[in-house]
Every structure is written in structure tokens, then in C-alpha cells.
Design brief:
With about 270 residues, the protein is of the alpha/beta class. Helix content is about 30%, strand content about 20%. The protein contains 9 helices and 9 strands. It is globular. The N and C termini lie far apart (about 45 Å).
């Protein structure tokens, strides 16, 4: 069946072998890694680990360089793992999910070459937005209760971004878990067979994205545009200048008690 998901699967299977070698991908990955490092507290204040301090190590742990806190990150649409590697210094466990088997293969090879065990960083093939249901491995407890879920430059490939955000919010911790979306601001139509067949949305507006996050059950929703933007495009094709934003939101705890009237937040106090 020629669905958007199948077209993306085929496209990124073809791109996987040389994806990390593309100069534009390298530059973009480095830029996002820098922005993530600079904005660690903005993304998830007090949640992600600080690799430059001893705040997450006990005296006993310092000699073995282990962490006392467990921080679990979901990288959805993970590709070869460029965004996962950017978050690696701030987490203890990273799980990737991608619709492309070839991308997942490259992801796991890269993690292995870095000396990481599968328990520390690994990816599986899956589609959380498949109407027939996720693959058997995805419903397991390992793929819930994340401290942070992130989609890096992938949401514009999803047919129903509102559904995607809702499904991802369900995967993070109630009351503390954060969803982070990194994507393009609105832009003109991109010509070319690959873009026309795999891209569903020509970027997202700031208010549009914040509203989708709130409708999916997030609070403390904030957005920021990243500097002067980025250049995107593969070797041998036309390059485009694009503005990139980050939007983050914390999963609202619907069972939280309202201190003022004793009601449960999100429900009438008379119930």
C-alpha cells in the first residue's frame, strides 16, 4: 500500500547507509547538539543530568563514574541516532524508535561502536501511530515512563501531528515527563520527488505547535526559535535556508489535587 508511512520507510531505508556522511546532516547535527547543550535547563529544568558537575554522583559513585539518578529518553523517529548522541551526556538510558529498519540498524551499529551497551542506548523498528497497533516490542514497560521524549525534525513527515504528539505524551511520566519537538517553522513548498512524497507539512507555526501540545495534555508549554536558522538539503540537490524551533511541554498530571478547593485538577470539584 502506497501510504505516507510506507513512502517514508522506503525513502529513509535508501538514505541510511550514507546519511551520517552527508555534510549538511553533519552540520545540522552539530548545531542541534550545541543548542541542546545550551538549553538543557530550558528543555527540562533539573531533570537532565549535568555532565560538568558532581550533582548526580555520590562519593561512592565518583570513583566508578556512575550516576545515582536514572534518566530515560525516548528519541522517536531516531534515524541513525544523531539526536540520541546529543542527549547521551544528559541521560543514562536512551531508546530510539524509527519506521526504517535500515536507520535502526545504523543507529545500533553506531551505539555499539561508541562502546555503549544496548541497555544504555538502542533502537527498535516501530510505528506508534499505526492504526493497527504498535509492534509487540513497543507496548512493553521499557517504552513507557520516559523522563523526556523528543522528535527531532521528524514531525513534518507525520500525517497526523496532533495524534503523534498525543501518543508521545502518553509515553512520558505523569506530572514531570517532558515532550520536546524540534522542527521547521512555516516555509514554502519544497520541490523534488523525495520531499513531495515524504513530507506532509511545510513547517509549523509557534502558536499552532503550542496549541497542539496543550491539547495533547501538556502544561508549561514554551517555544523558542533557534538563532539564524539552518541550511538543509542533500548533496547534489538544491539547498534551503530554514528556521528551526524547539517547543517543550510537561505532561499534565490530571490527578493532581487543587490546593484551593480540594478538587482534582481537570475535573469539577462536585464530582
Amino acid at each position: 500500500m502506497d501510504t505516507l508511512a510506507e513512502r517514508n520507510r522506503h525513502h529513509f531505508d535508501e538514505q541510511a547507509a550514507n546519511y551520517d556522511q552527508d555534510p549538511s546532516h553533519k552540520v545540522l547535527a552539530a548545531r542541534l547538539a550545541l543548542e541542546i547543550s545550551k538549553r538543557r535547563e530550558w528543555i527540562a529544568a533539573g531533570l537532565l543530568l549535568n555532565p560538568d558537575s558532581d550533582e548526580d554522583e555520590s562519593d561512592e559513585d565518583k570513583s566508578t563514574n556512575t550516576r545515582t539518578r536514572s534518566i530515560k529518553v525516548l528519541d522517536y523517529g531516531c534515524g541513525t541516532g544523531q539526536l540520541s548522541r546529543a542527549f547521551a551526556p544528559f541521560a543514562t538510558k536512551i531508546r530510539g524508535i524509527d519506521i526504517s529498519a535500515k536507520m535502526v540498524e545504523r543507529y545500533n551499529e553506531s551505539a555499539n561502536h561508541q562502546g555503549l551497551y544496548p541497555d544504555e542506548m538502542s533502537a527498535v523498528v516501530g510505528d506508534l501511530f499505526d492504526p493497527t497497533g504498535p509492534p509487540p516490542c513497543i507496548p512493553g514497560p521499557e517504552y513507557f515512563e520516559f523522563d523526556l521524549a523528543v522528535v527531532g525534525l521528524g514531525l513534518h513527515h507525520f500525517e497526523d501531528p496532533q495524534l503523534a504528539i498525543k501518543r508521545l505524551v502518553e509515553r512520558v511520566k505523569l506530572g514531570t515527563g517532558v515532550l520536546l519537538i524540534i522542527d521547521f517553522s512555516p516555509h514554502g513548498f519544497i520541490s523534488g520527488e523525495a520531499a513531495e512524497r515524504t513530507v506532509a507539512h511545510q513547517g509549523f507555526g509557534e502558536i499552532e505547535m503550542m496549541n497542539m501540545m496543550k491539547q495533547a495534555g501538556c502544561e508549561d508549554v514554551r517555544s523558542v526559535v533557534l538563532g539564524k536558522g539552518v541550511t538543509v538539503g542533500h548533496d547534489g540537490v538544491k539547498k534551503y535556508e530554514r528556521s528551526v524551533f524547539m517547543c517543550r511541554g510537561t505532561r499534565r498530571d490530571e490527578t493532581r489535587i487543587n490546593d484551593d478547593d480540594g478538587s482534582v485538577e481537570g475535573y469539577p470539584s462536585s464530582l
